[in-house]
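Memo to structure team: turn this sequence into structure tokens by end of day. - J.P.
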Amino acid sequence: TEEVNSQGGFLVAPEFDWDLIVLREMYGVIRSNSRIVPMNSETKMVPRRDTGLTAYWLGEADSITASTMGWSQINLVAKKLGVLAYLSSELNEDSYIDVGNELADEIAWAFAKMEDDCGFAGDGTSTYGGITGVRAALLNLSATRANIAGLFVGTGNLWSELVLADFNQVVGRLPQYADTSRAAWYVHKKFYHT
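Reply from structure team:
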């Protein structure tokens, strides 16, 4: 009988499928929507224009007021992210499932999740590799949220309390040079459909 191992059940091997069910959230938003900058060393300086020149109306024989452009630099610092997992050669060679590929996929997923966590929620601590994400960067501009030029405070604290005018205000705060064809909302799926 197959139901009792000592009476013949050991002779019938359980059937395994070649596929592995993987149910997990998808990540990779930051990388797919960011500019990836190749670096040949640990740090890279990128010049940034902060302010421009000013034009003045002149009358006949008026002197021109001088203006100066303002510059600063953005300091890019390379960070190392790693995953360590052990896989025996026997498991890799004998498994019905291609465990090596599954492991590689899992490592890629872990990297993408960490990049998204840092890019959106990073607060500059070691948990986020010293990276300050978008949310913290905006909130660090002023202790009073209403004073932050690029931030609009909605009409309520709950998703259900936000109205279309709140979203229009956010779009209206985009600078003229912003490429609106590439601008995007980064929100949770539940929020989007609510």
